[in-house]
Automatic annotation (TrEMBL):
Pfam families: GCS2 (PF04107). It comes from Streptomyces albireticuli. One of its GO terms (molecular function) is ligase activity, forming carbon-nitrogen bonds. This is Glutamate--cysteine ligase. It catalyses: L-cysteine + L-glutamate + ATP = gamma-L-glutamyl-L-cysteine + ADP + phosphate + H(+). Keywords: Ligase. The keyword Ligase applies.
Length: 500
């Protein structure tokens, strides 16, 4: 989520001095971009998955410290809540049988982690929001044991000056308050990284923004929160509200939320970092001793610690990333749109779709972002979150006539985006067998109109019809989800209902 970039050894300095240092970092970034000092992309992709822990009863397990101790692997880390973990897969070259290789590494790692979790009467669950979570679980006492989480919680609350209000109007209505950032821990996602050159960054970011709604439509997996059926992908509205440092008066004045879709297409990665400084005061004004101007003047490459820390506390759905590896700077687009799960096969299908379609859209001679207002992309994203696989989206008409048309998301994906994704994967050099297998999963979801969210909702309502009350139906749905998740079969093949 970005909070992990906070190092426990730093102390809070003077805020104005920190802001001056941020401006200095931004100026140095501009020089690096102008001097073309960045690493040549090696077609490297990275993958992170945030996970839940739940017991045999389907309820959240606050045991991540115990599970991590048993896993004893640097690939697994804490996340914000005690019922969260994160697994990181080392970067891979996007070519050949990479999708199957990633899938096998995930199966091995998650199977091992699941066995270790079972030693403390728990288990790994890949899902956007655990259906059995209640607001009573999401309190400051259930934040993970790390100073950085306590510091983040303290600073967000200090900036806001009052409790958070969580209000979501979906199939049902949720209205509650929270005294900490703990509700953010309910949101578990898949994060996809793609290293790009500065020259190509804007095209890739714009393409990722344009296709975000389609990603959500086919990949939604978070229909429940605090016992209520809300949006088909309830993570985005929850994340916006649980990270919102704005008191009501600033919200009324149009101050941007720290979690946002954005408001314009961009021309450079610099645009996003400059927006960060212009719109968002530092949330964690921590500094180190690096003088980035001096480092650059001496021929070195600055880490730009303050800039990357600030960027990590602004939760764009497609986030720019500046990093230094082996003494060379590089840029990545971090796609944060997708929920976790339901299975490794589903995760890899979503991964294949994203990397393929973004490559194809970024290389189109008439880019989609020149034919579609940014506001339409933002509206599409909101619509897809609300309605999932049943969403209708607006998209540019084919040909030179121009204009937009409104169509079912499944038709847009089947007729336009899947062929583009296939062409994009071919351009990356992905093996046709991998391409066809994983894009075929997305095709079948569209054909059957089934994704993780629709399966959960269908199963939950069948459980209600069998006479279970709300809480027992959600618990039964979660247990059945876990059972089918462990088979590895993609969600569109799962039988609905709590029993065969």
């Amino acid at each position: 989520m970005g909070e992990k970039v906070v190092a426990d050894r730093f102390v809070l300095p003077d805020r104005q001095r920190h802001r001056d240092k941020l401006r200095q970092c931004l100026d140095v970034l501009a020089r690096l971009l102008a001097e073309k000092r960045f690493d040549r992309p090696r077609n490297l992709v990275g993958l992170e998955i945030e996970l839940n822990l739940a017991g045999p009863d389907g309820m959240p397990s606050m045991v991540n410290a115990e599970v991590l101790k048993r896993i004893a692997s640097g690939d697994f880390q804490t996340e914000l809540g005690r019922f969260n973990l994160e697994v990181n897969i080392v970067p891979h070259r996007l070519s050949g049988r990479v999708l199957d290789q990633l899938a096998e590494e995930l199966r091995t790692g998650l199977s091992y982690a699941d066995r270790k979790a079972m030693e403390v009467d728990s288990g790994i669950v890949m899902i956007g929001i655990l259906p059995t979570l209640r607001d009573s679980h999401l309190v400051s006492a259930n934040l993970s044991e790390a100073d950085r989480y306590a510091m983040l919680n303290e600073q967000v609350l200090a900036a806001r000056g009052e409790h958070f209000t969580i209000e979501i109007e979906g199939v049902e209505r949720l209205n509650c308050t929270a005294a900490s950032i703990a509700p953010e821990a309910a949101c578990t996602s898949v994060q996809l990284h793609l290293q790009v050159t500065p020259r190509r960054f804007a095209a890739v970011w714009n393409a990722a923004q344009a296709v975000a709604a389609a990603q959500i439509a086919v990949g939604a997996n978070s229909p429940f929160l605090f016992g209520r059926e809300l949006w088909r992908e309830s993570r985005p509205p929850l994340f916006v509200q649980s990270t919102d440092t704005r008191p009501p008066e600033l919200k009324a004045q149009g101050v941007r939320p720290r979690t946002w879709f954005g408001e314009r297409w961009i021309d450079s990665a610099y645009d996003l970092f400059e927006e960060n400084l212009r719109y968002f005061p530092p949330l964690l004004p921590l500094s180190d001793d690096e003088d980035p101007v001096r480092v650059l003047a001496e021929g070195g490459v600055p880490e730009l610690y303050e800039l990357t820390l600030h960027n990590g506390t602004i939760y764009r759905w497609n986030r720019p990333v500046y990093a230094v590896a082996d003494g060379v700077p590089h840029l990545r687009v971090e796609n944060r749109v997708l929920p976790a799960g339901p299975t490794i096969t589903d995760v890899m299908a979503n991964t294949a779709f994203y990397y393929g379609v973004v490559r194809a859209l970024a290389e189109e001679p008439r880019p989609v972002w020149t034919r579609m207002p940014f506001g339409v992309a933002a509206d599409n994203f909101d619509t897809a979150c609300r309605h999932g696989i049943d969403a209708w989206l607006r998209w540019p008409k084919p040909g030179r006539a121009g204009g937009l048309t409104r169509m079912p998301a499944v038709r847009l994906v089947q007729e336009e985006l899947l062929p583009l994704a296939a062409a994009g994967l071919d351009a990356w050099g992905v093996e046709p067998a991998d391409r066809d297998r994983y894009l075929g999963v997305v095709e079948e979801r569209c054909r059957r109109r089934v994704n993780g969210a629709s399966w959960q909702v269908d199963t939950y309502h069948r459980a209600l019809e069998q006479g279970l009350d709300r809480d027992k139906a959600l618990a039964a749905t979660t247990r059945r989800y876990c059972e089918l998740m462990r088979t590895g079969e993609p969600v569109h093949t799962w039988p609905p209902g709590i029993a065969d």
